[in-house]
């Protein structure tokens, strides 16, 4: 009985995809991949690079193995790996992803010298006093006064926003943009609940919170509803 | 078993030592046995403010290093019958001469004999601060109505909140100048308490008498006629658990209407 092949190459509308079997050993897989790519059809040497997808099913690949496979494919034909898709991830990765996408609620006053840092969204019930810093990988929502520094999307997410009940920050940072507060806040001006975001000119602007629903529709995570 | 209260502020020159001296005096006037500890090793001056400088024989570092017994180092205040004592800081060593653990044991030992141990903390948040806070059960944060003092108080409160053995700190606003506060040139009391969001335990008006008294080595709390003295006595009563209303800051206005209001017990 002939064994099913471990490596299959399929052409789809979106380009070439390599299906790598997930039941054989990694060594066998490498060997067969090597063979298959060596013996296959003859191609024009000066043709452009073709990007391919690699699907490995339920096989977990470490970063080194991923690099090895990319290298292997790259060295054979003029193929370049666009991405490696796998159904498996480690618990650490999953936890990181989860923590980056959840909202952390904290009831506290962030005082001068204190730094609060969360990977996902931050919902702070309390104030940020001058000299205090809050940082979040995602958005920052403050149900209180923001008088210190807030840094949203500090891992590079420029779509992140900062919202505060009283917006009197000493500095606002979103992604790699920084905006300093005016030297003097106008006296007696009490605007309630404002938000800060990066506009199309790559500048941080402060606006009414109601502006967000048009600017950042992705903030709405509820699907369906009545 | 007594209670240890640390008086701290972060910023220097806001009145920690004066507050320590006066709270100690006011508590002793209430008949409590009080021991003051100066932890500002190398820059001691609580003894000067108390007028006990020339009676010092041993100091905090001597006790910690075992050169003498605690009771040998304690300086008795003669104005009180066995109620008020001072453990002075060393002048020749520096803050690293004492470790937080040693301070903790020292305070524990003193708590057996005294109702209140009041610890005068040095400025800053380094070793000296850590020593001062180590044995404390309660904390009093002193600030003045200045942005810089309030900023440092905020920092200190943040650090105190991390200490597990200390109750939430209480606030004293010192050196209030009534006319400046009224004109809005100074932060006002409500603004500061709202900003720091901790309980206010007392306000003390700026009073020339305080400096005069300190220079004479007599805490102002001994003088019953001064406004600042009454403020400190009120704070002492609040420490003891009484509820005393805050002093009115405004000068009494002498209008007929306000007199009538006062007659009917309406508070303006």
UniProtKB/TrEMBL annotation, chain A:
Instruction: Look up keyword Iron and say if it applies.
Output: no
Coiled-coil ranges from the UniProt annotation: none
Q: Which Pfam families match?
A: MinC_C, MinC_N_1
Keyword check for Protease: no
Q: Which Gene3D superfamilies match?
A: 2.160.20.70, 3.30.160.540
The record places domain Septum site-determining protein MinC N-terminal at 7-84
Q: Where is the Septum formation inhibitor MinC C-terminal domain?
A: 106-206
Please list the GO biological process terms of this entry: cell morphogenesis; division septum assembly; regulation of cell septum assembly
InterPro entries from the UniProt entry: CAP/MinC_C (IPR016098), MinC (IPR013033), MinC_C_sf (IPR036145), MinC_N_1 (IPR055219), Septum_form_inhib_MinC_C (IPR005526)
Question: Any idea which UniProt keywords this protein has?
Answer: Cell cycle, Cell division, Septation
Family, according to the entry, reads as follows: Belongs to the MinC family.
Q: Could you tell me which NCBIfam families the record lists for this protein?
A: minC (TIGR01222), PRK00513.1-3 (NF001772)
The subunit structure is: Interacts with MinD and FtsZ.
Checking HAMAP family in the record gives: MinC
Record's function text: Cell division inhibitor that blocks the formation of polar Z ring septums. Rapidly oscillates between the poles of the cell to destabilize FtsZ filaments that have formed before they mature into polar Z rings. Prevents FtsZ polymerization.
| Protein name (record) | Probable septum site-determining protein MinC
Organism this protein belongs to:
Bacillus methanolicus PB1
Query: By which gene is this protein encoded?
Result: minC
TrEMBL record, chain B:
Q: Which GO terms describe its biological process?
A: division septum assembly; negative regulation of cell division
Q: What's one GO MF term for it?
A: ATP binding
Cellular component GO terms, alphabetically?
Answer: cytoplasmic side of plasma membrane; cytosol
Is Nucleotide-binding included in the keywords of this UniProt record?
A: yes
Query: InterPro entries attached here?
Result: CobQ/CobB/MinD/ParA_Nub-bd_dom, MinD, MinD_FleN, P-loop_NTPase, ParA/MinD_ATPase
Q: Where is the CobQ/CobB/MinD/ParA nucleotide binding domain?
A: 5-220
- One Pfam family for this entry, by name? CbiA
Superkingdom of origin: Bacteria
For this UniProt record, the keywords arranged alphabetically read as follows: ATP-binding, Cell cycle, Cell division, Nucleotide-binding, Septation
Q: Where does ATP bind?
A: 11-18
Keyword Membrane annotated? no
CDD domains tied to this protein = MinD
Gene3D superfamilies per record:
P-loop containing nucleotide triphosphate hydrolases
The entry sums up its family as follows: Belongs to the ParA family. MinD subfamily.
Its biological purpose? ATPase required for the correct placement of the division site. Cell division inhibitors MinC and MinD act in concert to form an inhibitor capable of blocking formation of the polar Z ring septums. Rapidly oscillates between the poles of the cell to destabilize FtsZ filaments that have formed before they mature into polar Z rings.
* Protein name (Swiss-Prot/TrEMBL): Septum site-determining protein MinD
């Amino acid at each position: 009985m002939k064994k099913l092949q471990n490596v299959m190459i399929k052409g789809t509308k979106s380009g070439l995809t390599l299906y790598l079997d997930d039941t054989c050993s990694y060594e066998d897989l490498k060997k067969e991949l090597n063979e298959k790519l060596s013996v296959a059809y003859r191609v024009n040497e000066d043709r452009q690079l073709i990007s391919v997808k690699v699907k490995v099913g339920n096989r977990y690949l470490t970063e080194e193995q991923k690099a090895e496979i990319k290298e292997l494919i790259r060295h054979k034909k003029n193929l370049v790996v666009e991405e490696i898709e796998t159904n498996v991830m480690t618990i650490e990765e999953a936890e990181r992803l989860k923590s980056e996408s959840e909202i952390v609620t904290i009831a506290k006053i962030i005082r001068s010298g204190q730094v609060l840092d969360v990977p996902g969204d931050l919902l702070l019930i309390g104030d940020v006093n001058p000299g205090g810093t809050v940082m979040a990988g995602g958005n920052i929502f403050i149900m209180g006064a923001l008088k210190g520094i807030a840094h949203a999307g500090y891992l590079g997410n420029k779509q992140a926003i900062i919202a505060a009940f009283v917006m009197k920050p000493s500095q606002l940072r979103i992604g790699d943009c920084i905006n300093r507060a005016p030297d003097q806040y106008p006296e007696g001006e009490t605007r309630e609940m404002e938000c800060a975001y990066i506009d199309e000119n790559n500048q941080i602007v402060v606006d009414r919170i109601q502006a967000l629903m048009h600017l950042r529709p992705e903030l709405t995570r509820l699907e369906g509803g009545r | 078993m007594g209670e240890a209260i640390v008086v701290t502020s972060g910023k220097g020159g806001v009145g920690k030592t004066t507050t320590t001296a006066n709270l100690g005096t006011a508590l002793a006037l209430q008949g409590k046995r009080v021991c003051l500890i100066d932890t500002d090793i190398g820059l001691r001056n609580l003894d000067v403010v108390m007028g006990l400088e020339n009676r010092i024989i041993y100091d905090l570092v001597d006790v910690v290093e075992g050169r003498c017994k605690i009771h040998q180092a304690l300086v008795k205040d003669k104005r009180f019958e066995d109620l008020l004592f001072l453990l002075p800081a060393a002048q020749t060593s520096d803050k690293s001469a004492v470790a937080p653990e040693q301070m903790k044991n020292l305070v524990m030992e003193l708590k057996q004999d005294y109702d209140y141990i009041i610890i005068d903390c040095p400025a800053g948040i380094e070793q000296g601060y850590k020593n001062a806070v180590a044995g404390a059960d309660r904390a009093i944060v002193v600030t003045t109505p200045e942005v810089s003092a309030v900023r440092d108080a905020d920092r200190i409160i943040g650090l105190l909140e991390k200490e597990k053995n200390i109750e939430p700190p209480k606030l004293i606003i010192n050196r209030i100048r009534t006319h400046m506060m009224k004109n809005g040139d100074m932060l006002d009391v409500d603004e500061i308490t709202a900003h720091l969001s901790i309980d206010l335990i007392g306000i003390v008006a700026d009073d020339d008498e305080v400096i005069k008294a300190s220079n004479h080595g007599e805490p102002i709390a001994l003088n019953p006629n001064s406004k600042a003295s009454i403020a400190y006595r009120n704070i002492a009563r609040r420490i003891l658990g009484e509820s005393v209303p805050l002093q009115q800051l405004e000068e009494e206005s002498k209008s007929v209407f306000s007199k009538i209001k006062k007659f009917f017990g309406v508070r303006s």
